[in-house]
Every structure is written in C-alpha cells, then in structure tokens.
Amino acid sequence: MFYYLRGTLSVLRQGFAVLECGGVGFRLAISASTFASLSASLGKEAMLYTYLSVRENAMELCGFSSEEELELFEKLIDISGIGPKAALSILGVLTPADLIRACADGDYKAVARAPGVGNKTAQRVVLELKGRLPDLPQGSPGSSVQSSRNTLSQITDTLVLYGFSREEIQSATRGMDFDRPIEELIADTLRVLASKR
Q1: In this predicted structure, what is the pLDDT of residue 147?
Q2: What is the rounded CA–CA span in Å between residue 82 and residue 76?
Q3: Fold match flag (4-64 vs 67-129)
Q4: What is the mean pLDDT of each run of 10 residues along the chain (197 residues)?
C-alpha cells in the first residue's frame, strides 16, 4: 500500500516513531536500530520505508530506515510463528549483514539474543532463511569491526539526545562487548556515565 513515507519526525520513542506528512501523523512501529538511526532527526525531515501489517483485530504500520531492513522484515514474517513484533525485535539486535551471516553460519544463538525470541524460534529462523538471503560480499560492512563501529554509532546517536557529549559516551563504552543487544549496551553505558557525574 505505502512504500515509504517522508515527512517531519515529530515523535521518536523506543518502539515507535511518528512522521507528520501533510498534517497527518503516521505512527510507525520501528526496531531499535531504526530508532538509533533516527535519533538525530527529531523535528527534521525523515523518510521511512513501510510495511502495513494487517491482522484480524489490528492494523499496524511498520517503518524501516533502509530497504534492506524492510526486505528482511518481510522474509522474517513469512516464517511460521514470527509476527511483526518478533521480526522487529530480531532486526533491533542484528544488522541486516549480521542476520545474513548468522543464517549462513547456522548461528541461531545470535538470533536468540532478540528479546522475546527463544532458542526454538531462533533455530526455525536460521533454518528457514538459510540459502534464501543474499551472500555478503568480501570486505562488506558486516565484518565484526564495522559491526562494532555501527553499534557504537547507534549508542552515541541515542545518548547525545540525553545531553552527553560524544567524547563522554565513547569513553564510557571502551572495553565493552558489542556482541550484546543494543538495549543492554545503552543501559550499561548510562550506568558508567552516571557514575562519572
């Protein structure tokens, strides 16, 4: 129905964003990674790719910062037992490149890090998507170093909204294991920052 929406980002919360387009505020469910990518756009123009989820008793518009994330979301919800909420949870802890790698390697534990996704569901995701996702090119941004940089960038972009400087945030994240869910990393970073003030 809608492929993307472009408008002013008027509300940004964990789990959803509101884009105002022509005087209408569209509420979109978003992943943690899309939340982080939008963190510097509050009050400014933004664009989200969209998917309209229609169920018996509800309609929900989901938003994505990239077409790749949208395509993976559509593949995830095609899997039996994976609804929009679980798909967004998975995309919140794994970048598209990380999800492709996890499925190629059979690493269901990486998928199981997503809140609300157990081992059995994660195994089903890996089994269903193995061979259905594009290969990662050599030297792709999915490498572990680039993935850590992306995670650090997401944490920094999120926490500068709370008045911390980029230098403070990067100092507080030194030595952290970036292979954990971003929500845990943000919480740990906040604890370190609070202890220094």
Answers
A1: 60
A2: 7
A3: no
A4: 90 93 94 89 93 87 92 92 92 87 88 90 90 57 53 80 82 80 84 81
Smallest CA-to-CA distance from 18 within 52, 42, 51 is with 42
Residue 45 phi/psi, 5-degree rounding, is: -70, 140
The model's pTM: 0.67
CA–CA distance, 91 with 30 (Å, rounded to integer): 9
pLDDT digits (tens, 9 = 90+) for 123-164: 999 999 887 776 544 344 444 444 666 777 778 878 877 788
Q: Which residues pair with 20 in a beta bridge?
A: 8, 25
C-alpha to C-alpha distance for 122 and 21, rounded to whole angstroms: 37
The residue extents of the domains of the chain are 4-64, 67-129, 144-195
Identify residue 60 by its one-letter amino acid code.
Answer: E
Most distant CA pair in the chain, distance:
50
What CA–CA distance (Å, rounded) separates 19 from 27?
7
Q: What is the DSSP string of 3-42?
A: SEEEEEEEEEETTEEEEEETTEEEEEE--HHHHHHHTT-T
Rounded CA separation 131/147 (Å): 22
Please say whether the structural domain 4-64 has been given the CATH code 3.30.70.270: no
Topology of domain 67-129, CATH: DNA polymerase; domain 1 (1.10.150)
